[in-house]
Write a structure and sequence with these properties.
By secondary structure, this protein is an alpha/beta fold. The protein has one domain: Rossmann fold. Helix content is about 35%, strand content about 20%. It contains six helices and eight strands. The protein has an eight-stranded mixed sheet with strand order 1-2-4-3-5-6-7-8, with helices on both faces. α3 crosses α4. The chain is globular and about 45 Å long.
């Protein structure tokens, strides 16, 4: 079970959920909400949070699967874990997930040492949730890595309030070329949205140790993410 060091009250009164928090060596900092993959608040997600803290941000990774099973922490190393991860994703209530992210964002704004600026960044399922966070929450800036299902959500972009960056894997096995083209057609040209394409890489290219990890593309995407958050959250 994941080691949580923060509790957040759900806005619907159904309880509270945990979050992993990593803090930088500064008196105050903006917050980045790290949104999980389908594996829960895994070792990899906690490593992402730790790295964001090294980059000078307070990082909070909430347990979005808590309504199904609190404290899920899976890896991508066994068939049984993949099966459980997909089952959790299929049972996940996206609308409740966004409510929980808004609760996290609200709590983050008044967290100890927080400046009041909040961003989100997510991977896979979390990439989808980062896109929806840009549309439905008051997060200031949002980053999605290889988000799934975005081509069916493009109408939501008309309500987008925050800034958004999307990292798109051109050979994504879960987001085909037709879906990628639809995403570009729906989002290109909007002032608050930036899309980056990564040729020759598959889904989860930024997950160290994963079968599709590509160090060069991951480094480029991560540096773009850090620069984006520095520009949007530190002003």
């Amino acid at each position: 079970m994941a080691n949580f060091n923060m509790q957040i009250d759900a806005t619907d009164g159904s309880g509270s959920f945990g979050a992993y928090v990593a803090k930088p060596d500064t008196a105050s900092a903006p917050v980045v909400i790290v949104i999980q993959e389908i594996f829960g608040v895994s070792e990899q997600m906690r490593a992402v949070a730790d790295e964001m803290a090294k980059q000078g941000f307070i990082a909070i990774c909430p347990d979005l699967f808590w309504r199904q099973e609190p404290g899920v922490m899976l890896s991508d190393k066994s068939e049984a874990e993949w099966e459980k991860a997909f089952a959790l994703m299929n049972g996940f209530d996206v609308d409740k997930g966004i409510e929980d992210l808004q609760a996290t964002i609200t709590a983050a704004k008044s967290a100890a040492g927080a400046t009041g600026k909040v961003g989100t960044m997510g991977f896979c399922l979390g990439g989808k949730m980062a896109f929806l966070s840009a549309c439905r929450t008051d997060a200031d800036a949002n980053v999605g890595y290889y988000g799934v299902g975005l081509d069916a959500l493009l109408d939501e972009a008309s309500t987008m309030k925050g800034q958004l960056v999307l990292h798109i894997a051109e050979e994504d096995g879960f987001v085909d070329k037709a879906a990628q083209e639809k995403i570009h057609q729906g989002l290109d040209g909007q002032d608050n949205i930036t899309l980056y394409d990564y040729p020759g890489v598959d889904h989860a290219f930024a997950r160290p140790g994963g079968v599709h990890f590509d160090a060069a593309s991951a480094l480029l995407a991560n540096e773009r993410t850090y620069d984006f958050f520095r520009a949007t959250l530190r002003n």
